[in-house]
Amino acid sequence: MEDWTIHVEYSTTKKEKPKDEALAFGKVFTDHMFIMDYTEGKGWHDARIVTYQPLTMDPSAMVFHYGQSIFEGLKAYRTPNDDVHLFRPEKNMERLNHSNRRLCIPRIDESFALHAIKKLVAIDKEWIPRSPGTSLYIRPFIISTEPNLAVAPSQHYKFMIILSPVGAYYKEGMNPVNIAVENKYVRAIRGGTGEAKTGGNYATSLKAQETVAREGFSQVLWLDGVERKYIEEVGNMNVFFKINGEIITPALNGSILSGITRDTVIQLLKHWDIPITERKVTMDEIKQAHQDGKLEEAFGSGTAAVISPIGKLTWGKHDMTVNEGKTGEIAKSLYETLTGIQYGQQKDPFNWIVKIK
Ligand SMILES: *Cc1c(COP(=O)(O)O)cnc(C)c1O
After folding, report:
1. From the CB of 197, is ligand 1 less than 6 Å away?
2. Considering only the top CATH level, what class is 7-166?
3. 236 C-alpha vs ligand 1 centroid, how far in Å?
């Protein structure tokens, strides 16, 4: 019988909180964590909030060998009235199960998982920083824990949630970045795990990222794994182009991660009556649009940066400067509206905000 009560064991010590100015990304964790176990035949059980602490695991735990794991990423925002906002968290819970299905991990009850997030954030509420642009990053994740070297879906799992106060992504205003189009490595292929949020996708992306970073680029633009022709994503973000007044983003095809920020951007653009099309986009088309002077904007979208303008795209010998290397109007409006809603400074006509009591 599955039991959904969360046992809370408050931490007896309180860690020192870093100053907002010193916050980076994902280096500091709050006082508590959520943890719950899965055992085949019994289901998910023993939901608890305890002191943030290391785990004890068998060296043969399957996650160490075959990488059966998934994660999510969302944020809690503190508003000027000291309310706490989550942004479309039910979409993260839906995607969690989407990733679970792909990785043969048992389903989690979505409303329970959201309840666990809310309860943990409420307990560690004081950790949500107050300075503009800061937030509390929420990392739910599931790992396979059965001690077994046979290749098969694990019979034991842990679902955990950890929290990390993070600094403002843009400390000195929005900075357009230089992007290298990746011709050698691929992030994902159709039929693979590209549409799941799983650690393996990140492990395979490091080499390309490391290589271009040495040449001074911030991220790579990923092309499809078969023809190296169609644009998929930029770094760990979805990507948008403005060509001759129309916004275009690669259609979800199984190897692209379905970003919640991506979906939000599409909804906002539709609401503003700005033409937005989801379809296949080739690198040739972008190069042509640039040559014709019609490549007006390019930007990435994701929870961490919200919107990340692209100032220059380099594809082999071709350097394409976008909008004179400056942030475009659409990118700016999207960023301001989205963060305005998230931080409770703007109306939320879409009911995207979930308040934590
Ligand atoms: C998480 C992620 C994104 C962005 O998703 P959001 O829900 O918008 O944060 C995009 N691409 C990849 C590969 C990701 O892992």
Report:
1. yes
2. alpha beta
3. 6
